[in-house]
User: What shape does this take?
Amino acid sequence: MANVLRSGAYFIFLLCVSDLVSGQIRYSVHEELEHGAFVGNIAEDLSINIWELSTRNFRLVSDERMQYMEVNVKNGILFVNERIDREQICRQSSSCSLSFKIALDNPLEIHPVAVEILDINDNSPDFPKSEFSLQISELIAPGARFPLESAHDPDMGTNTVNTYQISANEHFGIKVQTRRDGSKNAELLLQKPLDREQQSTFTLVLTAIDGGVPHRSSTARIIITVVDANDNAPLFDQEIYRATVVEHVAKGTLVIKVNAADLDEGTNAELTYSFTNHVSQRIRELFKLDAVTGEIRVQGVLDFEESSIYELDVQAVDKAPPGLAGHANVVVDVIDTNDNAPELDVTVLSSAVREDAPPGTVIAVISVTDLDSGEYGQVQCEVAANIPFKLEKSLRNNYKLVTNDILDRETAPLYNISISAWDGGSPPLSTSKTISVSVTDTNDNAPMFTQSSYNVYLMENNSPGTSIFAVTALDADSDQNGEVSYSTLNNLQLEEPTSAYVTINSKNGNIYALRSFDYEQLKQFQIKVYAQDAGSAPLSSTAIVNVIILDQNDNAPIIVSPLTWNSSASVEIDLQSAYPGYLVTKVIATDADSGQNARLSYQLLDAIDPSLFTVGLFSGEIRATRSIRDQDIITERLVLCVKDSGQPSLSSTARISFSVLSNVTEKSSGRTDKPRHSEYFSHLNRYLIIILGSTSFVFLTTIIFLVNLKCKQDRNITEVYSSTVCCSGQRKTNDRSYRTPAPNEHLNYCGPGQIEDYRYTVCLSPESSKSDFLFLQPRHPTLPFYDLGVRDTNARK
Assistant: This one.
């Protein structure tokens, strides 16, 4: 039956779920159970589903070096993982338990678990020696007690030494006493007077029996020698002595002095003090008893946390053979001092936290203990105040480290959090631990361009596919949250999508032209660049790129006046008006380019008679350099070059033929505006004639307005014939002659055309019945007005 009960202790446990105290789960289990022994059903006791153990990252957190307990996540059963020896783990402590924590995520739950280790009777009592010797005087009266060596049993509670028995005899009995700490000791009790002459020695068997089921026991022999003589035992002045001493007191400090007296005389009254056999070796290491004086002094290091009270059994033995002994008990109370700093037990639940974690997110669980007592054991705990973390007290001396503010990885990606704890001593003792918490990135920063708008200057006729610009957007986030991609958005002001003009490299922001741009068709356009990160959900920003097309000299000048056919034009010259400086014609050319590329200059390349005409470099005016004589050829041909100022310069040439006429009016009246052959005209010629006519009309209207304004202001100009209108800027001299104007003198002119340092006269000829408007005629300064059909009032006078 005993073997059955013993086997049941290894395979059957006592499951005890106590009332929850602050959320703690408690179990009780016997020591020495085999691996896999059932302890409890964690899932059932926590009221959670079995599948949640794996999905919520169920884990057991323990500070023990050996993992005595383990949980089967498939069924939630807590079982024994390693052999548990209560005596090895807790030694002589009255209570013994294993503590750990159960942690689950989503949401975070922390459940403290305590498994009480119940003792089993796996150790037998053990005497320090197998044989003890006692000498008892025959004069000792019945009722005398003699302390016996105690047996030691490492088990606790009922499994430790419960009683002592002695073999049957008529003189001696056994008396079992219970000490304050619950231990048992035995004293040999003299029940009947001794007579050495009848029996001088006794051999008894002392048996120590524990309270386990089944019982365990051990034995030792007691050899008693009966001696004669000294019949008075020493007596202490107190049966119990009490003393107090501060822990960690200096070695040699006097604790107390005991005193005993013997009524005998001489040698029988000389006493020697010593500890009894009940005093353990550990106490003997801490205290020293002077055999002569009875002074008890400290010789080791007293530690309140090890033991707060010591009981010392002392005896005084006289020197008479055999010596008689008197006994007393000394109780030493140890006073606690603040000699232990708090201990921090930090369980980090997450060493990384998202920067968007809400305040109150749990980072770690902290347990603070102090081995001191009273106010010395009252502990406070805190973290630095300048960090976004704080401590929240959950249970007594238990805290949670939680977030206290919004985190920003871009400002502080890592926190080294120092946790400090101090006790209530004076001065207080403290300790600290540092944990590192990294902040993981979230997509909370949009890409930012270096500028909100950019100006790009691009020369026209660019090569398609070349890079014209690069934009950069920076994102303060990390990893994919900081990976920026680029694209373009359509511009509603453009006729075509933006993708028809440019393309952008999505990785580096390089912008490439997809076509060759023409300044004459498109002078500028806008590109809206869109930058987006790779976060979830992505953030974005935009920037404007203004592309300004720069002109290139890619258009040659076009001669629009006089009208040309196959780069040739014909001009008729009135022989009577051909004086030096006479404006034969004005060449007008246009250039589709702008700026310097459209600044034109005119140059005479070839002529039959180079000395007859000159060409204005910038005006394009062809003037006679001398009078045309009758002997000159009646047809003159010039080759004129018009070129722009671009680099390189572009040019056009035209061949102009001049016909010298003797009568301008008659010739003019017989002319027709239609070409002889309609095939000479083209649509371009018609457009040029319309443009030239419109421009001439506007210019003529402006000149007439200015002439009228000038004529009203000039009071010195007299009226002329109603059939002739003329406004001249010629200044009169006192002798009514005319002179050439000074180079810097401002000129007044009439008629269309730009005049540079020459005078023009606009006349209506009375000789023509059709009142034709004649070509602008520059007046030679040496010829009188009446030669040109214009009379000056002062001249008639």
Notes: Residues 344 and 777 are 114 Å apart (CA to CA).
